[in-house]
Amino acid sequence: AALDAKLKAKGRAYYGNILDTNTVNTAQVTNILNSEFGAITAENAMKWDATEPNRGQFNFGNADQVANWATSRGKLLRGHTLVWHSQLPGWVSGINDRNTLTQVIQNHINQLAGRYKGKVYAWDVVNEVFEDNGQFRNSVFYRVLGEEFIDIAFRAARAVDPAAKLYINDYNLDYAGPKINATLALVERLRSRGTPIDGIGSQAHLIVGNLAGFEEQLVRLGQTGLDVAITELDIRIAKPVDSNKLAQQQRDYELVTRACLNVPKCVGITIWGVSDRNSWVDSTFPSYDSPLLWDDNYNRKSAYNGADVALN
Ligand code: G3I
Fold first, then answer.
1. Neighbouring C-beta atoms of residue 220, cutoff 10 Å
2. CA-closest residue to ligand 1 atom 11
3. SS3 207
4. What is the residue with the minimal CA distance to atom 18 of ligand 1?
5. Quick check: pTM over 0.90?
6. What residue ranges define each of the domains in the chain, with the CATH number in brackets?
7. How many CB atoms lie within 10 A of CB 211?
8. Ligand 1, atom nearest to 18 Cα
9. Which of 99, 105, 107, 227 is 20 to 30 Å from 32 at the Cα level?
10. Of all residues in the chain, what percent carry a pLDDT higher than 70?
């Protein structure tokens, strides 16, 4: 059976993947999504630059396409993402007063989360708010509003779609260090002041052979008592790719899938792409390759068996 069915049989919510306008008409991709995965995240279509390129001017064409694909097939929908410093239009980055930026955040969330109200399983409310050193990232949101921008965003999201699980999401939460510490400390502060937060997303953009401590850190996230999700999993290989590295990748996918099973609060895993052909890794890390479960020609890799064996 499919990865999704097997993870659900273990009492978890989904094994998911991404979709966007570049793949929605590619049958090799959508057939795999249909048969193997139970949740969909839009890779780009729900981001700020795509949905509100100018103030108050909302475009939901691409986002609707992804959302409709998912919901019409009974897939869960993960919303990604409401407040992020990247893929942020210039008109937002230029705001420098508290009232305007607060209203802009609230309106963006009201419109975007409002459009998909009742259809979204979970929203990544804030994404990548910390630097790896544990300092807040110097985004327009933090510069103008300080940490409170996070409370503003979570409160707005809860108000507009009370059924959606609300997540903080980040990368490099898979090893010990200041970033995961800062994330856990922030989560405690948010809860202590009554800000609604339900989950922590660990993106898990990983490198083959470099997963020591992954489970230990996922355990720490789960110890908060919040839901935990692996939200953007991929495990890239330093070029040249060879059979030893692919075998290690198989073990690594097994390790990540088992780690989720070993953390009772881990609700699901989303892999950040179907085929290696469409991965963001190609352009961002040209010296790495082959991060996913299907190769450039949509053939299953041994990495698939790694994820699968963990579920058997
Ligand atoms: O849409 C434009 C298109 O009009 C233009 O012709 C083309 C030329 O470069 O660019 C297109 O935009 C690209 C966009 O993806 C849509 O394809 C951007 O250049 C490209 O930078 C963007 O990359 C995305 C990246 O986020 C941007 O930060 C990746 O697809 C996407 O996989 C990646 O996803 C992020 C998560 O959202 C957050 N966590 C990290 C993860 C990986 O970077």
1. 18
2. 44
3. strand
4. 87
5. yes
6. 3-311 (3.20.20.80)
7. 20
8. 32
9. 227
10. 100
- Measure the CA–CA gap between 17 and 39, rounded to whole angstroms: 6
pLDDT per residue as tens digits for the range 47-80: 999 999 999 999 999 999 999 999 999 999 999 9
Residue 280 DSSP one-character state: T
Pocket lining for ligand 1, CB < 6 angstroms: 43-44, 86-87, 127, 203, 232, 280
Instruction: Name the residue of 43, 206, 236, 271 whose CB sits within 8 Å of the most ligand 1 atoms, as the mutation to test its pocket.
Output: 43
How far, in Å, is the centroid of ligand 1 from the Cα of 44? 6
| Gap between the Cα atoms of 248 and 181, Å rounded | 29
Q: How many CB atoms lie within 10 A of CB 30?
A: 16
- Could you read off the pLDDT of 195-219 as tens digits, one per residue? 999 999 999 999 999 999 999 999 9
Per-residue pLDDT at 1 exceeds 70: no
Q: What torsion, rounded to 10 degrees, do the Cα atoms 199, 200, 201, 204 define?
A: -150
CA of 310 to the centre of ligand 1 (A): 31
Residue 276 has pLDDT above 70, yes or no: yes
Confidence of residue 20 (pLDDT cuts 50, 70, 90): very high
199 - beta bridge partners?
167, 227
